[in-house]
Amino acid sequence: MVDAKIFTCIKNARPRVYRFAWRNFAHLLKDRAEQQPHSPALIFCDSTADTRSVITYSEFERRTAALAGRMHREFGIQRGDCVGLALPNCAEIPLLTLALFRLGATAVPLDLAKDVSARKRYKLKNAGAELLVVLPEHADAQRREMPDIQIATTDQLLAAAPDADLEPEWTGDPKCEQHPNIVLYTSGTTGRPKGACITRQSLASNADGIIRWLGFDARERLNLVLPLHHINSTTFSIASLMAGGTLILNARYSVSAFWRVIARERATSASIVPTIMADLLARADEFEREGHDISSLKKIMIGSAPVPPNIACQFVDRFGVRLIQGYGSTEVSLRVTGVPPDLPDDQYRDVLEQNAIGVELANNNLCIDGGAGEGEIGEILVRGPVIANGYLNQPKATAEVFCNGWFHTGDMGYYRDLHARRFYFIHGRKKEIIIKGGVNISPIAVENALRDACPELDAVYVIGLCHGRWGEDVGAAAIFKPAVKHPDHAAQDILQRGQTGQIPGLSMYEAPSRIIPIAHEDLPLTSTGKVQRSALRERVQNEFIVK
Length: 547
Hints:
By secondary structure, this protein is of the alpha/beta class. Among the domains are: 55-170, Rossmann fold (3-Layer(aba) Sandwich); 435-543, GMP Synthetase, Chain A, domain 3 (2-Layer Sandwich), CATH 3.30.300. It contains 17 helices and 27 strands. The strands form seven sheets. The protein has a nine-stranded mixed beta sheet, sandwiched between helices. Strands 18, 19, 20, 21 and 22 form a five-stranded antiparallel beta sheet that branches. Strand 20 and strand 21 form a beta hairpin. The longest helix is centred in the first third of the chain and has 19 residues, at 57-75.
């Protein structure tokens, strides 16, 4: 468990302790159902099928109670149990997640597209999952793949009547605040996924900070296109419910449907990653031809990966909508800094061009390790109730980064005082994690998969390459065994296998897009014999101009 000192932060020289405004999430949903029963809590949009469905707050409360009752009665799910969700973006995910909150159980969302079988099994085993929820069409395959876990389909669970006698979550239990509501797995430098324990306190306090930062209220209509196994959509969803607003959930990100959905649903805000920003800007002419009315849209939140400031400025100029940058991670339950959305135009432009990640939010503190002064670079540390309660069943990994009351982010940054506020800036990453389109990819995990599947390799080193659309892409330097007479051909063969999903344990998204052969003697080494990955990255980058 994480040191309790991180559950407070200092504001105006006084300790600040976050308190959830409701007894529990069941009480939150009942309150919303009573106060605004006919207001839409969730609008689900499927651009492929060109369909939409609406769930009011009254219906949301009733259906989460029904789901909780059915999981408890028929599958034995109770307080403290973990339930895996192997689902694409769908209306069932927020319903199931809140139903589990009502039971005092824990949701474990999986990445349906990128979690290969071995990784999925590891996550479910690590979490001790009692149940896995899947779509009906995936049930038979999942039962064969996971014979030792109960499988439930969404249609089974939804065919339930409300359970008026359902006991809510741990009301009155002092441990309730630190009970994991969600376990979200994030890649680590060891290659083994780490399950961040997102508690009710960390999730709700971060959502509260977002509400205060962005001025959310019941009029907010938030458009989400990112997957719900990502901390971004997870916390923004909870913020929407806590504010009494409307969540517009998309089945998937579609560049051609993005503006159409915003115009049709009269969205007031949206959340994207830099990859989406680049996509939309590249198709700006199409947007202007179609003439979508996006006058309702006041701001677009952006983060989860480095934001190129030149592209951000072009985006704002072209579409006339402010990009509001923020910074955080899974371990801090999403955002810990954010650019104030109401800055005067000249100040906003200055902050945008300088690529600031914003000011400290309401329920956390930031500092630069070592007490660095203005403009001095150090590791960014975070404390406060937004911090996750460590990594599930990984005490060593927890102790390494959750220590002395602070979470050590692994990101290097600095602060600068601008416009009477303290703004923070990212300088680079201490960690070697590759962030491709907002998704963390572990170089060591990719290296392990390549070595296991390719006996012709003597060694392989995976690094992140700069990429115009994804922010970063996966590259590799490969050392082949002496018996391989044509290393260039062998590299192309591995590249092709990875790009077509033929390397076990490696999704196509994670597979290298560039592989160069390299000799042992050409490896850049430190004085202690360690590979200098930064120098290796420069070599691979210089050999390929990634567009």
